[in-house]
């Protein structure tokens, strides 16, 4: 088996997989999508919200905002974010960059995502908690996308791309996914004994 890098940018990598079975190539792709750890907003406490959007809708939007990731933080780490936005006389768009983190290691990654548009005399004040999870738990924890196409099934050749949605480079996501897949195979091997 061989993995060859065809094109590489920090957030996107294209690969050629040679000598892979279809099931192994797909297992790698699925590991990238569902098993990589990431931080996402999981709970939101609203203190003031007289915008046109319900609390539940805003909480869902906040959960989907990509956050940075730091591997050195413990599994049970909770990062608090605050947001305090107000519009007095004119309309104002509240962006993700207005979420203030209590820990500089985990902050908003995609800052220009609109959260809500405030009309005159509207206010949004909240506190949100981000936790670590994986795409298996919820789609908001998905931090990378991967897809593949068949080049030559007889040779086991596939073309794969990986795109990162956070500060972790796509190549690092690949390395982490390979390690996770290896650990899963080792655990399965132990169970078969």
Strand order of the largest sheet: 1-2-10-9
As a percent range, the share of helical residues equals: 10-25%
Multimer state: single chain
Tell me the name of the CATH class of the largest domain: Mainly Beta
CATH homologous superfamily identity of the largest domain: DNA-directed RNA polymerase, insert domain
The CATH topology of the largest domain is given as RNA Polymerase Alpha Subunit, Chain A, domain 2
Strand fraction equals 35-45%
Number of helices: 3
Low-confidence stretches: none
Biggest sheet statistics:
4 strands, antiparallel
Shape: elongated
What is the typical, i.e. mean, pLDDT?
A: 94
Secondary-structure class: alpha+beta
Number of structural domains: 2
Radius of gyration: 20 Å
CATH architecture identity of the largest domain: Beta Complex
CA(first)-CA(last) distance: 26 Å
Secondary-structure map:
Layout: E1 2-9, E2 12-18, H1 22-34, E3 38-49, H2 55-63, E4 78-87, E5 92-95, E6 100-101, E7 114-118, E8 122-133, E9 144-152, E10 157-164, H3 170-192
Antiparallel strand pairs: 1-2, 2-10, 3-8, 4-6, 4-8, 5-7, 9-10
Helix pairs in contact: 1-3
Describe what this molecule looks like in 3D.
This protein has two domains: 2-36 and 143-192, RNA polymerase, RBP11-like subunit (Gyrase A, domain 2, 2-Layer Sandwich); 38-137, DNA-directed RNA polymerase, insert domain (RNA Polymerase Alpha Subunit, Chain A, domain 2, Beta Complex), CATH 2.170.120.12. It is built from three helices and ten strands; from the N terminus they run ββαβαβββββββα. It has helices at residues 22-34, 55-63, 170-192, and strands at residues 2-9, 12-18, 38-49, 78-87, 92-95, 100-101, 114-118, 122-133, 144-152, 157-164. Strand 9 (144-152) and strand 10 (157-164) form a beta hairpin. The mean pLDDT is 94.
